Amino acid sequence: xxxxxxxxxxxxxxxWWLLRHETMLALILLVALIxxxxxxxxxxxxxxxxxxxxxxxxxxxxxxxMTFIIITGGIDLSVGSIVGLCAxxxxxxxxxxxxxxxxxxxxxxxVGAAAGFLNGIVITRVKVPxxxxxIATLALYRGLAEGISQARSVRGYPEWFYFIGQDNLFGxxxxxxxxxxxxVVAAIVLDRTTFGRTLYAIGNNETAARFSGLPxxxxxxxIYTLSGFMAGLSACVLVSRVTTTRSDMGMGYELDVxxxxxxxxxxxxxxxxxxxxxxxxxxxxxxLKNGLALTGVxxxxxxxxxxxxxxxxxxxxxxxxxxxxxx
Amino acid sequence: MTTVTLAGAEVDLRRRLKVLASQxxxxxxxxxxxxxxxxxxxxxxxxARNLSDVLLGNAYIAVAAVGMSMVIISGxxxxxxxxxxxxxxxxxxxxxxNGAPIVVAWLAxxxxxxxxxxxxxxxxxxxxxxxIVVTLGMLxxxxxxxxxxxxxxxxxxxxxxxxxxxxxxxxxxxxxVFLMILATILxxxxxxxxxxxxxxxxxxxNAEAARLCGISQPRTIVMVFALHxxxxxxxxxxxxxxxxxxxxxxxxxxxxxxxxASVVGGVSILGGVGTVVGxxxxxxxxxxxxxxxxxxxxxxxxxxxVQGVLILxxxxxxxxxxxxxxGA
Amino acid sequence: xxxxFAAAFLSATLLAGTASAADKRWDGADDLPVNPLAxxxxxxxxxxxxxxxxxxxxxxxxxxxxxxxxxxxxPKLIGIGYFNATSKGMQDAAxxxxxxxxxxxxxxxxxxxEQIKFxxxxxxxxxxxILFAANDPVAIAPVLKKAxxxxxxxxxxDANSTPDAREWFVNQAEFNGIAKAMIDSMxxxxxxxxxxxxxxxxxxxxxxxxxxxxxxxxxQKCHPKLKWLETVEAQEDNNLSFNQATTLINKHGxxxxxxxxxxxxxxxxxxxxxxxxxxCGKVAVVGLATPNAMKPYVxxxxxxxxxxxxxxxxxxxxxxxxxAVVDGSLxxxxxxxxxxxxxxxxxxxxSEILLGSPFIFTKQNIKxxxx
Lengths: 327, 328, 371
Prior knowledge:
Chain A is mostly helical. Chain A has helices at residues 21-39, 46-71, 79-95, 101-126, 130-149, 163-166, 174-192, 194-204, 206-211, 216-242, 253-263, 275-294, 299-324; strands at 168-169, 172-173. In chain C, 38% of the residues lie in helices and 18% in strands.
């Protein structure tokens, strides 16, 4: 994690790594955890923390590819709608097409990937800016979910399907394993592979990346497809957790995901960001909400706090960043 | 972006404006074409009463989209506008029921709108926090704050004189439609012919070049957000005065509708390009589509999918046309 | 370019062909069986067979009979008039009982996902009982079962979950009762052989879907000439409801003699649309709504009857039921429960407690209510 070169002008008053966004954020998180834990003895228990992991998995799975996308300077607003579409198709293909459930799961993942692929192909081929394309498919995919479902929900899945959403594996919520593995893979890909380096290159200067012979379009196509796929995976986990499908599932996820990613220090202008930052951002939002709730703060006040934290922590982190760069 | 001389920027700007004139033409054709096509299927759609109702009921979206377009043209985005409209409507309504002079109730929405947006502009421009972060945070703050304060208690018993949206100018022109047209024309003229208006394009298109031309980028951004707040305030007034009750909550997904109107109107999310005439036409088109789909008996389950397809088609058509123009 | 539009338009019109197939139940889309009431009050309704208790039970709940308890109320969403009223009823009951503390907290939008997280948090924080109004009957079940397994008492009100995920459900009024009141009012006000349309929130909202399905069944049975035109969605959004109602008025013209508002948002907005179109007296508006928002229209004679139960009483009853369960005075198999100032409420349908018949607000009585 030390590949960002130290600018020559850096003033070495404090160790540079302490001023990194993720580190700062992690410290803020730590302080918040201690304070909230002090205020409520049910907060810092293993049981509660694992349970929070369970509840944040769906958003977390999508936040990983979203980090990739935002690093390239793009965005994907359609993820919440893809969750809805995949959830509906999971139930629909099982119930109406009569697919065996494993096949239905694959089908819904495939549809998620296809939805992401459509975003990617139009963004790369037709050169529609990602925000515009995904705002249009945000409406379209949700519309398809509503149209296909005809407002009907599908329930009554076999017991084994609920494992991933409700059971534990080695004492840890099953879906949390999925998230943890995804985090590690995503971090390695972003940090240690050419593919990951290409993402930063695109975000820093797309034209330069193109002239350097990097497969810009192919890489973009892959990450948007991946985003759709992960939204599909998230849909399967969600359906397993809540045991039913609704066409409004995942509504508003896009903003939760983006909040976690940008809170984690990924720059919306591209070129900067890490998976660890996103993980800290995710944990921060989920644990703050949970900790405040346990301390007796009501939901409406909690979202005010979350909004303020989002702005303030970005402010603190970016001013430190600037100081580090000696600007 | 290579270095752009002043004259070059001027030419560039003019060419862009010309290109966009045809996006507006395209939208105007779509608005009229759709009306005729739906009218053939169901003539009642073309009744003056219906056409005016479509405009009347959605004028607030168009008014807010004017401000949103400026923000996007300046290279920023605002996700908090829907929540702000909910808050402003509540403030205005609360003042009105508690006996404040109606004019004060109206002005309060505009003033608070300007202040909140200008504050966001300052954070974005001077503290250099990305607009999406600031406005996403503000969305949470406004949404949660509104419910914390009001508890979501509906505002009823509003005085009759409060209902701005009921006024008909000269007995025929409903005030919301008048305001929509007025806001669009004034904003369009100002953005096209005044130095400060053109600065928005410069800042959004090429911030470095703008700086070289002596345009203060932070000041322009704060100005844009303040104006956006003014339009949001006006939109909130139309929103609040259309019905007899104010819900005191944040209208769901309103920010998305407004952003969609702006981008479908040909405003480039990359900044520097677009006009408010386009966004107003787009807002009208989107409202018209929503109404038309009911008139032509599209199954209500499929309405949102069809809307999505139509938006996608418009956007792709716009991009392809621009590419062709750029290539030619 | 124009080709693109033409193609999109064509696909739009093609889709229209599929419209009629789904409208069998106008769309009360839950596909559950319907049970319409008898047409006139004189006829005895077929008494439903007594069902054994089918609710769940908490495991190892602490015995707090007669002791102070802390409850949390998680409605579908906070910040709307209706749930403010139920919350007020709970506070009233808490005051009357003296040994109950109840706090209302929940999502700001009616999202099942958010609601689950709220309930989960309160399970961790350790309350004695949870009162809920479900956004989705099935999706909420796992988290409620988790609460039961931790010894927390669970009572539903307003919107049910699957029975085994809670102990009791306080039913404001039976679906078929509401449906009968709505359809009878419409037939009376618009005319037996007239046409009407429906403005609802979304087809997936369970209560609305249930009411519409029961209205469909009851109309088939008792007012077969009443003609349905269409049902439109308008979320829980004031202005969208107004626009949708206006569109219906403009589309159907003289054919439209009545509008049903299925939510406390849609009904006043529909009344406003009728008022603005100057069609008061020509288009009847019948719907579910809270009285304050409807007063202007009822007083102006534009709306004659508003159907609702008293949500304050609903919250009040739910709290009393919770107390009775904790105290052990309401056990599976009981036939009634004492609910303070509301008197004895009957157990129906296995594990539901019925608040009463739907209430109809009219010009005479609406001024007596303030919520």
